[in-house]
Write a structure and sequence with these properties.
The complex is a heterodimer of chains A (about 675) and B (about 120).
Chain A lengths: L1 E9 L5 H9 L16 E7 L2 E7 L11 H13 L3 E7 L3 H13 L4 E6 L1 H6 L2 E3 L1 H8 L2 E4 L8 H14 L11 H16 L10 H5 L2 H13 L2 H6 L2 H18 L2 H20 E3 L6 H9 L5 H41 L3 H19 L2 H17 L1 H15 L7 H6 L4 H6 L7 H10 L9 H11 L4 H28 L18 H20 L1 H14 L9 H13 L6 H9 L5 H11 L3 H8 L2 H13 L4 H11 L2 H28 L1
Parallel strand pairs in A: 1-3, 1-4, 4-5, 5-7
Antiparallel strand pairs in A: 2-3, 6-8
Helix pairs in contact in A: 3-12, 5-12, 7-9, 7-11, 9-11, 14-15, 14-16, 14-22, 15-24, 15-27, 16-23, 20-22, 21-22, 21-28, 21-29, 22-29, 23-24, 24-27, 25-26, 26-27, 29-31, 30-31
Chain B lengths: L1 H22 L10 H14 L4 H33 L6 H4 L1 H23 L2
The chains are: A alpha/beta (about 675), B mainly alpha (about 120).
Chain lengths: ~675, ~120
């Protein structure tokens, strides 16, 4: 069976991952906002006697390599040499999408265009002449509706035909005689060049054919820094001289190339599209309210409050059912196992600890469900937009809001999502403050403490934790920018996806993908954690007050005595360094019996609130520390994050206790 | 549309004020909740601009609030039944006022949306 390597590329939020899932049967996360895919993902499919190997690349507007995701996409096409590149194009926005298409064609890639959102184009009364578009671009164009899996067979057929026979015809963007001469001159020099580094992304190109050298020459004239780095210094200088000369006549070269491409795109669009509503779309009308200067942010807060209210209120009976299940199981284990020590380990240690965490599964799933719903409708992109004004003022890039929002789920993918940010300083700043966004692992602690100490105000108290996280992230961003980076964030341009009716299957699939991580953790890291806690709490004498754990807890507890927490609470915090979910599991093992009653006797309301704030802020979990290390490429920044978060957590908790004591 | 929008804005402003007063313990027949009061005030501000997009957003928010209260009350009822074997519910918990306001919102939106379609 012949294998065909197929890269899927396109602008952000044009349905690449949806198409990838439709072609492969995979269930990768899909979101109605830009920046969902930051790493390439792979999957397989079949068509007749062909095995199709699909690679889903991050969404990019061009192949200019300004941000990490653009670099990932471009380098893949340059170095991995896919047999076919499916360029997924938004039929409702051809003008913007075809820029990337033209760059791919200039790269002489075997392109097949998947014309997505044909249903929305029809709704807008747009008539797209697919045959004419195919004729202009010289590549196969297949209309598809990825969400409904329509047009998939035709697309696969076009992929196989293109892999076997190549594109229909090659097209060139005309840049004018002077520019073409300059390109030819550089091409001549490149043909003689010896490659200094064979591992560089351009190695294949420079060793390759005249056509491939043409692309490098074009990039050199456009002023692409990456291209400059990989060619011989003499050639880079020569290209720069040519560029300067041309700029005297034509102005900025990068702008000139872009202008020429858009001129061609304009002609294509003019010839291939008829009709189209000029009146405001439904999305435009709703955005007048949602993005309103004064109403946008208050509406965002209302929506977030409703999300937390639903998360807390509706999950209650399901939580009770799980609680009952673990109680019965614990009793059954205790009475069924004759060995007292083993019965205690399983009944109190494992059932008590893991059970204490698993009772929050309904809350976690509900929160993920609501966040997925908001993503799928397109509201999250609006949230990013309305917050941008605030974020810019405080020194954070507007694009940072998306990784910050993702941080509500888990800080690890959120930190990885910063790859969409072009400016390295903006990206680093976002990574450093991201752990302050309250991830789902911290939610069980809030729910537990809010339920015990703030009955009737749970949703408000939980929301206050999330807001505190946002406020602290903002304050730290300001401070870190001022101390380490200076300057202002780069401007933020974001395309608003249209509002779409959410698809229940997508939402459930995303909720399950995110939620199952929490369940998996309960069976692995939390299980190991609570077993260790149980052993430390029961040895050497079998009495918790004289255990190893008490020894550790009581030796550290004086540090926390200004906050009024017992050694048990302090030990749970220590265990939480591995993963914040373990805090509740550890409390369950340490206090034993009815956790809520035990906590009510060990904390005051103010101390409980301070404890929640401390859990929100102090030290990121191990996985997040590793992600910071990996993404910043420096352990210095990981250590810095740990240090500032511990200090900040202590300071905030102390302030709460002191101010709360006065009230 | 103006009269309808301003009336809804006024009703939501009253509901918001009522919720604040209830949270302060001054009156008892409104649900005492500051976030709810804030939400009512935001919806009031949305309705204060009489055009269709504002009416649509006002309705969406209004219906979301009442739906969440209904679901929450149902869940509480179920939870009480699981824990105690019986359950009872009072109108305050369902938040009858939010439901009444959301019904008014839907009715208004339906009426004006139909007219908008008729008039092209």
């Amino acid at each position: 069976m012949k294998e065909i390597k197929v890269a899927i590329i396109g602008n952000p939020n044009v349905g690449k991952t949806t198409l990838f899932n439709a072609l492969t049967g995979e269930k990768q996360h899909v979101g109605n906002w830009p920046g969902v895919t930051v790493e390439k993902k792979e999957g397989y499919g079949r068509y007749n006697d062909y095995r199709l190997h699909y690679i889903d690349l991050p969404g990019v507007y061009s192949l200019s390599a300004y941000s990490i995701d653009e670099r990932i996409a471009r380098n893949f096409i340059l170095t991995e040499n896919p047999d076919v590149v499916i360029d997924i194009v938004d039929a409702t926005n051809l003008e913007r999408n075809l820029y990337l298409t033209l760059q791919l064609l200039e790269l002489k890639a075997n392109v097949v265009i998947a014309l997505n959102f044909m249903d929305e184009a029809e709704k807008r009364k747009m008539q797209i002449d697919v045959n004419k578009l195919q004729e202009f671009l010289g590549v196969r164009v297949v209309p598809v509706i990825a969400r409904e899996k329509r047009g998939m067979d035709e697309l696969k057929k076009a992929v196989v035909e293109t892999a076997e026979h190549g594109v229909i015809r090659k097209i060139e963007v005309g840049y004018g005689r002077d520019i073409e001469w300059a390109i030819l001159e550089i091409e001549g020099l490149l043909a003689e060049e010896r490659i200094r580094c064979r591992h560089c992304p351009f190695a294949k190109l420079c060793l390759g054919s005249d056509r491939e050298r043409h692309w490098v020459s074009t990039r050199l004239l456009e002023g692409d820094d990456e291209a400059n780095k990989v060619v011989d210094e003499e050639i880079a200088i020569k290209a720069m001289e040519l560029r300067r000369k041309l700029e005297e006549k034509y102005g900025d070269m990068a702008a000139y190339f872009a202008k020429k491409r858009y001129e061609l795109i304009g002609k294509i669009v003019h010839q291939c599209i008829r009709g189209g509503e000029t009146k405001e779309t439904f999305s435009d009308r709703i955005d007048k309210v949602m993005l309103d200067k004064y109403l946008g942010i208050p509406i965002f807060f209302v929506i977030m409050w409703l999300a937390f209210k639903l998360t807390f209120d509706v999950a209650a009976p399901f939580t009770t059912l799980i609680e009952m299940f673990f109680e019965i199981l614990g009793e059954w284990v205790k009475s069924g196992i004759p060995n007292g020590m083993l019965a205690s380990l399983i009944g109190e240690g494992i059932m008590g600890g893991v059970g204490a965490v698993l009772v929050f599964v309904p809350n976690i799933f509900l929160l993920f469900f609501i966040l997925s719903l908001l993503e799928d409708t397109g509201y999250m992109a609006r949230a990013a937009f309305v917050m941008d004004r605030v974020m810019y003022k405080i020194g954070l890039h507007g694009k940072a809001f998306i990784p910050m929002l993702l941080g509500f789920g888990c800080n690890v993918p959120a930190i990885m999502a910063t790859r969409t940010m072009e400016d390295e300083r903006d990206r680093l700043l976002t990574i450093l403050v991201n752990p302050l966004m309250s991830c789902s692992a911290r939610l069980p602690v809030y729910i537990l403490f809010a339920g015990v100490f703030f009955a009737g105000m749970e949703a408000g108290v939980i929301m206050s934790m999330y807001l505190l996280g946002i406020l602290l992230a903002v304050a730290m961003a300001l401070l870190i920018r001022k101390i380490f980076f200076g300057g202002k964030p780069s401007p933020f341009i974001m395309e608003m996806p249209p509002y779409r009716v959410p698809i229940l299957k997508n939402i459930i699939s995303t909720t399950w993908m995110r939620g199952k991580m929490f369940i998996r953790k309960a069976g692995t890291i939390i299980l190991v954690g609570v077993v260790i806690i149980w052993f430390l709490a029961n040895f050497p004498e079998g009495n918790i007050e004289n255990s190893f754990l008490a020894l550790i807890g009581k030796s550290i507890q004086p540090l926390f005595s200004p906050l009024g927490w017992s050694w048990r609470a302090v030990v749970a915090l220590l265990a939480g360094v591995v993963g914040k979910e373990i805090v509740v599991g550890s409390l369950g093992t340490l206090y034993g019996g009815n956790l809520s009653t035990a906590l009510a006797g060990d904390f005051t309301q103010v101390q409980a609130f301070a404890y929640m704030a401390f859990v929100l802020i102090y030290i990121p979990c191990i996985a997040t520390i590793a992600a910071i290390w990996q993404e910043t490429g420096s352990k210095k920044w990981a250590l810095f994050t740990i240090a500032y978060e511990i200090l900040l957590a202590y300071g905030v908790a102390l302030a709460i206790v002191l101010i709360g004591g006065l009230i | 549309m103006k009269i309808y929008s301003y009336t809804m804005a006024l009703l939501y402003a009253l509901a918001g004020t009522g919720s604040i007063l209830a949270a302060a313990g001054i009156i008892s027949f409104f649900p005492p909740s500051i976030p709810l009061a804030f939400s009512f005030m935001v919806i009031s501000a949305v309705y204060a601009r009489p055009d269709m997009p504002h009416i649509i957003v006002g309705t969406i928010l209004s219906v979301s609030i009442s739906t969440i209260y209904i679901l929450g009350a149902g869940a509480r009822l179920m939870n009480e039944f699981l824990n105690e074997g019986n359950a009872s519910l009072n109108i305050e918990e369902i938040n009858g006022m939010a439901i009444a306001l959301s019904i008014l919102s839907i009715a208004g939106m339906w009426y004006y949306k139909t007219r908008e379609v008729k008039n092209g």
